[in-house]
Design a protein that fits this description.
alpha+beta, extended, two-stranded antiparallel sheet, two-stranded antiparallel ribbon, 2 domains, 4 strands
Length: about 160
Amino acid sequence: MATYKEQLQNVWHMYKKMHGSVPATSREAVQWGVLNSMIKAPEVDPLAKLAEDMSAALREEYATDAQGRRYRVNHAVRVTQGGVQYTFWAIMKDAPREHMQKAFVQRREQIVDDCVQLSTDVDAYNAMKAKQPPIQIPFDFRDDVEERQHGNDVAA
C-alpha cells in the first residue's frame, strides 16, 4: 500500500497527466484529487494545527539589534527521543548557548542538504537536456551574503 506521501505524489502525476505538463499549484492538484475521490481531506487535530501555525509564526518573528541587524528572535532545535521527534523553541536572547549552537548547526546542515539536492537536480536536468547549454549554479555564497548584508545595512 502506498504511503501518504506516495498517494499525494500519485495524485500530482495523475493531475499532470489529465491537465498537461504546465506549472500548477499543489492546491489545484489536491482539490482535483479530492473531487475525483483519489484522496480524502484529512481530519485536522486543532492543537496540531495551532502548534504548526505557531512554529510558522515563531520562524517569522524578527527584531533589530543595537547595530541595526535584523535577526530571527526564535530558534528551534529538533531532538528525537524514544523514536519521536520534538522541536524545542527558545528565544535567542534567553537561550542557553548549547541550544543556539545546536540550532545554528542544524540550520547549516539544512542548507548543505538543500545545496546537495540542488546540485543533483541541476546535474540531472542538464543530462536530460544535453543538447542545450548546461545550467550552472554557483555554490560559493560569500559574495551573495556580503551583498545582502550590505543591502540590509543600507535599508536599515
